[in-house]
């Protein structure tokens, strides 16, 4: 008990110090954030189809939901983005029907609002990539967790997935575009998001947290120093595919008869 109390006190103390630091640095942080927005390259979302069917084997209905990183900002086509590379990585094992719903600047809250206007089609697997834009807005950790959990509830009701795979928030403290102390501030906030989501996903059977545990490497970033390039998307997709392939036997045993209609009732 004393050890647990000490850990909680330490965590609370760190959060308080982070808050005090942000308040003290707020004028500089605001100035830096505005400057970054002015100088940052406005790269377009990747061109190409956002849905398709590829591969052979048992059917797998895949949805990818996220922000600019999922939308393919940083690469030319969806083939080199997460959606294309993940579908390709799964295609040797499944007949993958995939669909991408992602938008630049998307937050967890805006994604929930956007999905209310999309078709509620069944999906076996959902992959999410959200959090960076919530971090840059310094959304409070508990508010972010609440919005994430509300999004997962929406996805369960709309798509009835076997599993939802959560992409970890990247190490923003290593983003080349960000100057100090903005980089330090966002990096600390991203790590707080990570720890919170990892804890809650571990206690939720249909959530799988996939951490972003690659070493910081500017060579894996797009030309804007903020988004993943094709090489990083490949590593990201391979890790996701590996998790899905490993987990699939557990899902397929309880999979409903595929001969029935897949249209929502």
Characterization of this structure:
With 265 residues, the protein is of the alpha/beta class. The chain is built from eight helices and six strands. The chain has helices at 2-39, 68-71, 82-90, 108-115, 132-136, 141-159, 182-202, 230-252, and strands at 51-54, 59-66, 95-102, 125-129, 163-167, 207-210. Strands 1-3-2-4-5-6 form a six-stranded mixed sheet, sandwiched between helices. Strand 5, helix 7 and strand 6 (207-210) form a beta-alpha-beta unit. The longest helix has 38 residues, at 2-39. The radius of gyration is 19 Å and the shape is globular. The N and C termini lie far apart (51 Å). Mean pLDDT is 87; it is low at 1-9 and 257-265.
Annotation field: number of helices? 8
Order of helices and strands: HEEHHEHEHHEHEH
Low-confidence stretches: 1-9, 257-265
Given the C-alpha coordinates, what overall shape results?
globular
Q: C-alpha Rg, in Å?
A: 19 Å
Descriptive key words:
48% helix; single chain; 8 helices; alpha/beta
Topology:
Blueprint: H1 2-39, E1 51-54, E2 59-66, H2 68-71, H3 82-90, E3 95-102, H4 108-115, E4 125-129, H5 132-136, H6 141-159, E5 163-167, H7 182-202, E6 207-210, H8 230-252
Parallel strand pairs: 2-3, 2-4, 4-5, 5-6
Antiparallel strand pairs: 1-3
Q: Brief description of this entry?
A:
The chain is α/β, with parallel strands linked by helices.
């Amino acid at each position: 008990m004393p050890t647990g109390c000490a850990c909680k006190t330490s965590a609370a103390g760190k959060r308080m110090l982070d808050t005090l630091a942000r308040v003290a640095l707020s004028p500089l942080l605001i100035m830096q954030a505005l400057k970054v927005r002015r100088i940052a390259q406005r790269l377009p979302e990747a061109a190409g189809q956002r849905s398709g069917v590829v591969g052979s084997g048992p059917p797998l209905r895949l949805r990818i939901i996220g922000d600019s990183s999922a939308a393919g900002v940083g690469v030319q086509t969806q083939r080199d983005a997460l959606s294309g590379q993940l579908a390709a990585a799964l295609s040797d094992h499944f007949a993958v029907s995939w669909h991408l719903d992602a938008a630049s600047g998307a937050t967890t809250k805006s994604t929930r609002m956007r999905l209310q206007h999309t078709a509620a089609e069944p999906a076996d697997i959902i992959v999410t990539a959200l959090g960076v834009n919530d971090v840059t807005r310094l959304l409070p950790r508990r508010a972010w967790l609440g919005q994430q959990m509300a999004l997962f509830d929406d996805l369960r009701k709309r798509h009835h997935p076997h599993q939802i795979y959560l992409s970890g928030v990247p190490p923003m403290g290593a983003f080349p575009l960000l100057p100090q102390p903005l980089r330090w501030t966002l990096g600390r906030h991203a790590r707080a998001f990570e720890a919170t989501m990892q804890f809650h996903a571990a206690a939720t059977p249909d959530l799988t947290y996939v951490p972003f545990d690659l070493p910081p490497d500017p060579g894996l970033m797009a030309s804007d120093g903020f988004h993943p390039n094709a090489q990083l998307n490949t590593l990201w997709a391979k890790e996701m595919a590996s998790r899905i392939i490993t987990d699939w036997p557990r899902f397929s045993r309880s999979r409903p008869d595929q001969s029935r209609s897949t249209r929502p009732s």
